[in-house]
Amino acid sequence: MFPPTLYGTLLFFYANHWHGADFASKASKRLQESLSKTLVLFYPLAGRLKGPAFVECNDEGAHFLEARVNCQLADFLQQPEPKLLNHLIPETDSETAQVALGSVILLVQINFFNCGGIAIAVSPSHKIADVTSLYTFARTWAAINRDEDQYDDGVGGQLALPEFNGGNLLPSRDLPAIPKTLETPSENLTTRRFVFDVSKMARLKAKIEGVVQNFIPTNVQLVLAIILKCAIAASHNSKPGTPIRPTVLFQMVNLRRRMLPELTQNAMGNWFWPLPVLFNEDETQLHELVSTMRKGLTDFVMRRQTDLKV
C-alpha cells in the first residue's frame, strides 16, 4: 500500500516559435478545458483520498498550477539540471504541499518559458495509478486537447477508454497501512543524468546477440545492465581486495499482459510487481547480466501465471 504523498510524474516539453502576447493565457485556458473533459473519463483522478485505501469520487478536480520560467526552453534542455527540473513539477511547490499533497489525486503544473515553449508536468497519486496508467491518461488528454473526436493516439490508432476494473478482479483486503510520509535521508543521495547514444546502444545489442543466440535485449534491459555493471565495479573498487558479492536487482514488471486472460493496457491502477533478480558474483559482463534478467522474468511469468488468473 502506497503512502498518500507518493506521486509519479511525467514531464512533457513542447517547443513553440509562434506565439502572441496572450499565448500563455489562451494555452492555459485550452489545457484546463481539455483537462476537465479528460477527467470525466478518468473520474477517480478528480476525487479525493479519504483514508489509506479509499477514494471518494466527488468530482472536486485536479490541483492545477501555472508557472513562468525566466529562460529559453532550448537553453534549459541543452544541459538540464535535475535540481532545476524539480521546479517544474507540482509536488515540490510549498503551497501545494500544504493544501494538496496526500488528498488530491492529480496534480498538474503548466510551465511557460520566455520563448513560448511549454513544459507540462502530470503527477497522479501512485495509490491509484502506475506509469502505464499515467501514459494512458496523458495520451487521452493530448487527444482531447487536439479536439479529436475519436481520440486518435497520434500514430494511426484510436485510444480506448480507461478501465477501472481492479476492484472486481482483485477484491480488496485488510492490509496494514504505512506511514503518511516516508523519511528518506537526503544528505547521502545525489541525482545524475546519463545520456545513452542510440548508435552505441545498437552496437551493444548486436554484440550481445552474437554471444547470446536468438536474444536481443530491450533498451530497458540494456540500460539497466550498463548501470548495474558500473555499480558492481564501483562497489568492488571502493573496497579493494574484497571479493565481488552477489547482487540483487529489482525490476518492475507490468502484469497486464501477464494475466490470464490478459488485461488491456488501458486497465487503470497499479498493475505491476517488483521482481527481484539475483546475480552471482561471477556475472559481471553485459551479456550475462541481460541474460539473467531475461531468465528471471521468464521464470517469474511461469511461476506466477497460475496466481495471476482472473
From TrEMBL:
<comment type="similarity">
    <text>Belongs to the plant acyltransferase family.</text>
</comment>
<keyword id="KW-0808">Transferase</keyword>
<dbReference type="InterPro" id="IPR023213">
    <property type="entry name" value="CAT-like_dom_sf"/>
</dbReference>
<dbReference type="Pfam" id="PF02458">
    <property type="entry name" value="Transferase"/>
</dbReference>
<keyword id="KW-0012">Acyltransferase</keyword>
<protein>
    <recommendedName>
        <fullName>HXXXD-type acyl-transferase family protein</fullName>
    </recommendedName>
</protein>
<dbReference type="GO" id="GO:0016746">
    <property type="term" value="F:acyltransferase activity"/>
</dbReference>
